[in-house]
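Standup notes, protein team

Yesterday: finished cleaning the Denitrovibrio acetiphilus set.
Today: MotA/TolQ/ExbB proton channel structure.
Blockers: none.

Input for MotA/TolQ/ExbB proton channel:
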Amino acid sequence: MLITLLIEKGGFLMYPLFFCSLLLITIFFERLWFYISNRSDAEKYRQAKQLVENGRFGDAKNVLNGSKGALERVFLEVLNNLRCSRHDLEHIVSNKGVQELQRFNKNLHIMELIGRIAPMLGLSGTVVGMVAAFQAVASSTGGAVNPALLASGIWESLLTTVAGLFVGIPALIFYHFFEKQFVIKSIDLKIKGEEIVRLFGECNDRI
């Protein structure tokens, strides 16, 4: 099997690199599924906002119940705490917003860490392999350099560098992709959160 052969030829540092690759794939697909399945529903938000403007708070709750989007969940949290001052509303929106964003930021730091350490692991494996290759040449009979032996040792040691880059580069690409989505989500939640606070700013008068 190709993977087994690469691990055998690349040395012991191929094991943590292989583990990093599996972890990266797992996190990538988990985060991708999470972002897709927890997208905010702009139509639900519009409907709930319109219902609140008309004083139909119960109907607005029914629209938002069961929603997975961060914005709708923040909106629903405010609806569950209607009798409050503007200061309390801001506190509720801020706290709930932070909770929701933490869900979207989950495990991204692990992805970034893999992107940073995988190339270093690969380079370390290459250094160790090069040392072993030259040591083998130095200890060969007669002291004569065997080009085939040296070339074999070098290409095998370079496998870990290739593996490290193969894992690290996609990890950083994936990390920056999700980080960009997280920033967009954060900005949208902040803007809409302020909008929700204004909408409920005089909620005591509406109830």
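Follow-up from PR in the comments: The chain has one domain: 2-206.
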